[in-house]
Amino acid sequence: METPLSSVDPITFEILSHRLHQIAKEMGTTLERVGGTVNTTQQHDYMASLYRANGEVLAAGESMGWHVACAGFAVKRILERFEREEGIGAGDIFLINDPYLTAIHQSDVYMVSPIHFGGKLVGWSATFVHVMDIGAMSPGGNSPGATEICQEGVRVPGVKLVERGKLRRDVFDMIVGMTRQPVMVGLDLKCEMAANNVARMRMEEMYGQYGAELVDGVSQEMIRYSESILRRRVRELRDGEWGDSAVIEGSEKWRVKLKLRKVGERLVFDFTGTDKQAKTGINLPYHATFGACYEVVLGTLGYDIPKNHGVMRPLEVIAPEGTIVNVKPPGPVSMNTTSGGTIAKYLASSVLMQMLSTSEKWKSEVVAQNLGGRFPRHAGVNQYGRYYVSTILEVTGTGATSYQDGIDSGGRLTCHNVEWAELNFPLLYRFRRHIPDGPGAGKFRGGAGAEVALMVHDAPEGKIKGVSLGVAGRRNSGQGIFGGYPGAPSVLVLIEGSHPERLIAEAGSHRDPAVRKGRSLAYCDFELKKGDVLYIRAGSGGGYGDPLERDARMVERDVGNGVVSREAARGIYGVVVNGRGGLDRKATEKLRGEMRKRRLKGSVSGKGAGGNGASFPPCDLVEVWEEKGRKAVRCARCKGDLGKFGKDWRGGCRMKGFTPTEAGPLMKELVGHFVLQQFYCPSCGALLDTALEETQEKPMKRNSRGGLSRKSENVRRVRT
Asked: What is the pLDDT of residues 698-708, one digit of tens each?
């Protein structure tokens, strides 16, 4: 029988709930200190959490939300598999990495350990580490050539790795022996065992001091507390429906769709309409899709509440079986964390941002979202004659908000220290720098991502193997919001040739002929040989708001720092920077006035443009007003009427189309595939929304008034 919640006093609740949080954090610290692989120590690609006896999330420390959710599935699978037959004893540790049951892909190895007190199962600890190799077709586990899961490495539906405190050496040796790096994978597994042992000891101490009944009462109250806060916040928001879609482009084109329905105090994420599962390993199992939505809610509405099972209860995730977001056997999954998973998180964030933008209380929390980027894994014999497998990650820029710029090099993915990478791998970094004109423009610009050029250096075999990962496509990187422009697409290009210095000199320029001549890598295995250059452009953040409203002094600073070119400062922001690098205020004021006037010339009605949740006005750009019983929408700048409330307010705007390079010189890869649509207030010309319209037509021609002409209306609008 569970302890009545009213029996836990507030002071005891605070003390014990924080103690549980600290135990989960100590588990993570143990993973880092015992582990020695780059995934754990530098990229922090791990999870450490506590769970109740029934598998409900109790405390998650600083762990990634979607793995926290998936580990809850792991606990329940172990209970189902072992409780009745083999039994679950004190000191046991179980290993499971089957993506159809609990893991996201096989490289994510989960370990769960029961916690007993007084001879009774009272809780669980769980960890996950992305191991260095899992014995798949391609080194590292991410296998572009795999068409079914059996080609993607070791798959364990649940095994007792430690029995009553003693390691089952035969099982351990069998698992690590099926990988390319048995020593490093063994270290990964041992750091997980250490973290689970620490959790068990700390929890046993806590149970011994306070008793199982009180600790479980606090556990219930923690979950109830998180659930009650989230339900209250959801209840305060407007009921409605918001949607978005995104595309991954490889050998085929795969589209993921999502609608968010908010009803009362529930959030329903519905992925109906998503394409069928792919033969390439970008597919997600259901629990991973659920975990992606859980993580996004934690980072928005639940940013300041404890990460536990209470946040799950108001959520419902609909993901049709046999699609990219709910794979069924034998569909491959090995590349899903950085492709299908990134898409699911982006879409969940996008629809939540649309919902939050309708709230006066929450609109300041709206952030331009990032749609992922490209990066490689690499493997081979290093300069010391040892075989290795690792990943090259470069940091992205974060999206802008309603009150500040995105953070340069501030994205989710961490990156290697250059000196450490060159010391351990046969690589030479020719440059790592922020991408000029990469961030999405806006009143507040997106954060700049990094770009690098790499070469093989001191490789005994003269080459190394590579695997291309991430979100392949023309529209990856940061997406603009409420008039802000998208960031430059992320690319991964192999430039083959015998003149590396020339190739490097060209690779980072706006002309970048070397990049255009190089081979774009999308979900494939490749070789990096002596004399080749691997160029990586990470994603930059999207902008927020009208670029012409950006403080001219901030543009001047960006030009001085090399983040924005003088040409982009003038053409996009309307800011004139003189030859000495100083701001010409009079010329800037004049130019911006001319640019605003030009906006409405040659524009057309915005009716029929479509939209996602467009009936609700966004943030501080458009507002709702009521007069003489008429409820309408108007421009917040000049109070110009945009039409009746409840309809798509963009229909009351003027609209104009441009080539994507209007948003920056690095957008040229989108030319001929997308049109940059801008929606203006018909009265003052303020930029209220920016969108990319997808088209299969030939590149459009600019007309005499500065817009784009087209013969066909067979296009599809995609919200940025």
From this structure: 444 444 444 44
